[in-house]
Amino acid sequence: MKIYTKTGDEGNTSLIGGYRVSKSDLRIESYGTVDELNSWLGLIAEYAPKNHVDEILGIQQQLFSVGAQLASKSSEQKRPFRPISESDISQLERYIDFYEELLPKMTHFILPGGSKAAAQTHIARCVCRRAERVSVQLSRVDFVDKLLLVYLNRLSDYLFCLARAFTFWEKKDEIKWIPNP
């Protein structure tokens, strides 16, 4: 199989099921942003303690399903992947609960940063929020599974907690936002 097909040279691409759309279509933007997020998670996994790498890799696997769902025009289409479920969302909530128990209580808003791993995880959180915004936009004009939107929303919360955890694990201080110092 060749990596290039030349079928996208005119600015169009195919969705799952063969639908041809412009590369500027909201559906393409949504799963492209999810792909960008998945790449950030690949980098973040390199910083994670060994006992948390599988957690991140599992989320990367789910993001491939999210991308495939977004690349499908219809909810009726036969899919060769498992869509996001309530249990996937519950798993993210368990991770968030774990980190909230581990970390000191927040008393201020914090600035993105604190360590290289934390800063890059905050970037992933922002990319996740963008993926969510674009997917919500898409849901206003075309089918998007509601659980997928919930998953992206919860994933950004998870990434916020993971960023804080990196700062904690590296014994660095979080940078508090002090308004009008």
Protein architecture, described:
The protein is mainly α and 181 residues long. The chain has a single domain (19-174), classed as Hypothetical Protein Ta1238, Chain: A (Up-down Bundle). It has helices spanning 26-47, 50-70, 86-102, 116-139, 146-169, and strands at 12-14, 20-22, 110-111, 175-176. Strands 1-2 form a two-stranded antiparallel sheet. β1 (12-14) and β2 form a beta hairpin. α1 (26-47) packs antiparallel against α2 (50-70) and α1 runs antiparallel to α4 (116-139).
Oligomer: single chain
Q: Could you give me the name of the CATH homologous superfamily?
A: Cobalamin adenosyltransferase-like
What is the CATH topology? Hypothetical Protein Ta1238, Chain: A
Helix-strand string? EEHHHEHHE
Name the descriptors.
181 residues; mainly alpha; Hypothetical Protein Ta1238, Chain: A; two-stranded antiparallel ribbon; two-stranded antiparallel sheet
What's the layout of helices and strands?
Blueprint: E1 12-14, E2 20-22, H1 26-47, H2 50-70, H3 86-102, E3 110-111, H4 116-139, H5 146-169, E4 175-176
Antiparallel strand pairs: 1-2, 3-4
